[in-house]
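Following up on my earlier thread - several people asked me to post the actual chain instead of describing it. Fair enough. Here it is, all 196 residues.
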Amino acid sequence: MVQTFGSESGGGFGGNLAVLLHDLGRYDEADDWSAACTASKSLIRDSSNSEAVLRHANRLYQKAENEQGKDGGDLAQAKKDREEAVRLVWELLRNRLDKLTNATTQDEQSFKRAAELLAVWEEGLKVRVKEEYGLPGCIHSSTTAKMSVCARCKQVAYCGHQYQKQHWKEHKKTCSPSEIVQAAAEAKKGMLEESE
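Reply from S.P.:
Thanks for posting it. Predicted structure:
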């Protein structure tokens, strides 16, 4: 069953975002988010552009599912599509939380918890981006900047070409094509040899 953002049959917004976070290996965040969003689903639907954003996020998620299910599918692109779907929905929720003014006491507590989780999640993402990717000390995160991966190893991400260039001297000491990249290159080479 393909799950969709905002569809009640697929678990609704909170359930689907929890599924995406789980797929990305963010298990604690998935559990926390699922609990905090139980009473927050109406936030997403209240935005004027929410339907379009949710449809786009859903298309990205379905594309990722299809790509992952194919033999020889592009798993790196599938992961990027999932992450972009999560980012879009988080942005939509963040915008709605910022505009929230009239809520019941119970809703306010749920929304407050969701906003706290969003802040913790975003801060954690910034920390992970700094620790695991690219130029040390970069203040950008993949929620605010389009990340690009190293073309050679596909393991290190940067928020801009200038940062990749600055970090190259240090990174090239450890940069080597990943097993996936090497396997793809060997498969392509084999296909070219067969066609000759």
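The chain has two domains: 1-132, 135-196. That should answer part of your original question.
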